[in-house]
Design a protein that fits this description.
By secondary structure, this protein is α/β, with parallel strands linked by helices. It has 20 helices and seven strands.
Amino acid sequence: MTKNTKNIASSQIMLFKEEQPLAYRIRPSCDEDIIGQKHLFSEPGKNGVLTNYLKCNAPYSIILWGPPGCGKTTIALLIKSNSDKEFIYLSGASTSVSELREVINKSKLMPGRIILFIDEIHRLAKNQQDVLLEVLEAGQIILIGTTTENPHISLTRALHSRVKVFELKPHIEDDLKMLIKRALTHAEGFPEFKITEDAEKLLILTSSGDGRRMLFNLEQAAKLSKNKTIDKNAVQNVLDSSQLQIGADPESHYNFISALQKSIRGSDPDAALYWLARLLSGGADPVHVARRILVTAAEDIGLADNNALNIATSAYHAAQFLGMPEARIPLAQAVIYLASAPKSNTTIISIDAAMKDATELTPYSVPLHIRNIGKEGYKYPHSYKDAKIEQEYLPEELKNRKYFEPNERDKIK
C-alpha cells in the first residue's frame, strides 16, 4: 500500500485536526440518526434495505448514487463504523491502476475482509474499472462507491452487474430543518445559537436539497451573527448570487430542468433559453443540463429530425470539455436547434410499448431460425432483391405485433 492510501485507510478520514466543518461534526454515529433517505432506512413497520446492510457487516458491493450533500459519504462512514472489516479509502479522481492493484493484492491475503471505498467512482476510467471485476466477482473485496453521476451510464456494464445501486434523494424541507436543529443543539463548538424563522427559511430555500451546502452557510452566518442570533441579514451576507437565483425551493433545480424540457417540447426557443440561463447562472452543473437536453432530443424530436440527437450529443461533449462559462454557448446552440426543430415522440412510444410486452408478458423463446446456434430455415436477406424477404422475427406468440407506427413528421431514411 502507498503511504497516502495507508494513512487514509487507517484514519477516520479526518480532514482537519482542530476544526472540522459543521457537516462533519454532526455526522450520525448510528442509522437511527440518519436524516432523510427514508426509503432506504428502517421506519416503524418498515425494514430498510440499508439498515439490514449495516446489521449484516457490509455483505455485498454497493454504489450510493445521489446529488451533492444528500448523505452518501455519511452512509459510507457509517458502514465503516458498523463493520469489523478493514476500510480503505480511494478517490476516483486521483486513483491509479497501481493503487487499485495494491488493494487487490492485499485482499488476496484476507479475502472478504476489505471494504474498498471509492469516492467519485464515476471518475474511474474503463481500464481502472476492469481491474476490479475479478475480485468483485469472487467477493474478495466489498466495494462501496459514491457518485453524483448516473451509474447506469458512467459505469461499465460489467462493473454495474457486480454491484447493487442505491439511489439517494435530495433532502426535503423537513430534513433540512432537522439538520439545522441538530447543528444548533448538538454540534461541538456551536453552542447556544438561535436562528430566526426567516433566516432558517432562506437557508433551506437556497440549499437546493444540499445539506452540506446549507450547513456550511449556517456556520458562516453564525460567525457574522451578533448576540448568538442568526438572522436573515447574516445569511444573505454569506450567500452568493447563484444560490439566491436558483434556490427557490429544494426542488427548484428539477423544476427548472422540467421547464427547460417542456419549453423545447413546446417549440419555444425564447422560453427554453431563459430556463437554460436560469440553470447555468444558478450554478447548475452544465453536464447535468446537457444530459437532459440529450434526452429531450431523443424523446421529443426523435425521428422528425435525425440530426437533433447529433447536435445534442456534441453539446454534451462540449460541456464536458469546456465547463462554464464557455459551455453556455454550445448548450444554447443545442437548445435553440431543438426548440426550433419539428417534433415527434414516435421513438419513446415505440420502445415503451415493446418494454411493456418484454416485462409484463411471458418471456417467449427466440424462434429457432434466428437463433445464434443454428441457421436452419433462416433466409439471408442479402440473397434476395433489395435485401428483403418475408420471414418472422418475433416470437410466434407476438406474430404481427406492431410497436413502431411512424407519423407524417417522422423522417425515416
